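Researcher: Going back to the complex we discussed earlier. I've cleaned up the inputs and rechecked each line, so this should be the final set. Can you rerun the prediction on the complete assembly and write out the structure?
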Amino acid sequence: MATPSPVLLSVENLEVNFGAVRALKGISLDVHAGEVVALVGANGAGKSTTLRTISGLSRPRGGKIIFDGKPIGGIAPSRIVTLGIAQSPEGRRLFGGLTVADNLRLGACTRTDKEAIVRDSERMFMLFPILKQRLKQLAGTLSGGEQQQLALARALMAAPRLLLLDEPSLGVAPLLVRHIFSALAELKRQGMTMLLVEQNITLALDLADRAYVLRTGQVALSGRSAELRDSERVAQAYLGAAT
Amino acid sequence: MTQLDYILQQIVNAVSLGSLYALVAVGLSIVFGVLKLTNFAHGDVMMVGAFGVALLVGIGVPFPVAVICGIAAAAVAGFLIERIAYRPIRDAPDVARLLTSLAVTYIIENVGILVFTSSPRNFPLPDILNTSWEMSNGAITFTSINLLTIALTFVSLLLLGWFITRTTTGLGMRAAAEDMSAAHLVGLNVNRLIIVAFIVASAYAGLAGILWAAQAGVVQPQMGFTPLLKAFVAAIIGGFGSIAGALVGGYILGALEIFIVAFLPSSVSSYRDAIVFAVLIAFLLVRPGGLLQPNREIKL
Ligand SMILES: Nc1ncnc2c1ncn2[C@@H]1O[C@H](COP(=O)(O)OP(=O)(O)OP(=O)(O)O)[C@@H](O)[C@H]1O
Ligand SMILES: [Mg+2]
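Model: Rerun complete. Updated structure for the full complex:
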């Protein structure tokens, strides 16, 4: 099955080392415009490292990252946000001593289009109504689920063309996980392109069009979600990593 | 003089001294926030501001203009210190950065001694600032410079409050202080934030240096050492890296010092600095993160 939309992000043979640790040993993946792609795998497989490197927080040792036709490997994180990639990081990483409103404001710090920013915050409040009630509250005082919604909203305030999500269900109560994933489904309907890292495979494959399974810094398996969902090999890829 | 007048007088003194500590401590905290570095050269930036005013007034520049230029000179000094000394070692181990910070202090002070000698010079205060005001039939006096210190601190701290809660750059500075990689991820230009942090912090140090010299009546190259040490204590009491904490810590320390001398017998109060440091140690034991950050360990 060929995907008609153009490739938005292309990662080719990406290698990242931390000292002697080879975190990524040559990963290749594509994300097409309008697509949701899941990146799954066991602990330490290199999922977060992949996202952090795309965002410019880690320097690639080798390989290419091409966004919208331009190589972006190794350029400054703020430039990458300006080009259109925003990330909601693992563990949320909110500015806990700042208010919800100020966290959202900083999410839009690379933008200058005031009216569009106001419009986008209205959209955030439609997607995550609880945030509107919490605007003046310090982000650190929110519940886990509320914080995750704020982390998503903060990333979306950058008006990204590609949204990187690192474990949006982590530390979130089950009921709110459902809420968050229905918000992500809504975003998908609106055409947002996403690269989603998620421990909960069922949730990830339900949302995503395609998925890559990482194992110890390499792509062990990839394919369409529907195919992978029933595949024994996904479980095997996980087990392989655990041993 | 009645008991009440005496107490009021001491409160005025405490607010005035506390203002100076707060001005210096706030700058230390701003820089620590974005770099996680204790900038010992901060005291020397005070010296730059004070000398700037002394030299300019010496060649006939009106005092208020000289003050503005002195603050600007301090800001430029801070900018240069960051650019020349700290940026190249930004990712170096903590020990290297701390040593660099100490080295910068020694270099600036020694250049100051070479150029100006280490003997104190008169700080040229205009007559209008040398007058004193009396209340309650002379029971309470404050000098104009006391009042000016309190007023300027108040105004400049309000300005700082506006900056760090209302502007994107100010919010960004606090965000970067909390979580550097999250600051990168939202697209803040962290390099620019660090530069702004040094400029703002150094401008406040310049103002503090000018007011400190005005109260002391003299300037000399090592004048920054004592206020730096005190501001350091103040910042730790309040919670190192927290701007509000530095403020609170500055006023607490000012009050502590004044009240120890004013209300304790002289046999005790001559140990003022020892008492202050004992309080500091007690603080570090009970609340390692300071008053406003009870849960955070301080790493210097
Ligand atoms: N800053 C770092 N310094 C050293 N090693 C690191 C660093 N970050 C990640 N690693 C190592 O790189 C490998 C991949 O880590 P990464 O965080 O990308 O895994 P992950 O797939 O996101 O795992 P998890 O599911 O636990 O979040 C691990 O072996 C990890 O220990
Ligand atoms: Mg991870």
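Model: Worth noting: Residues 114 and 221 of chain B are 9 Å apart (CA to CA).
Researcher: Good, that matches what I expected from the previous run.
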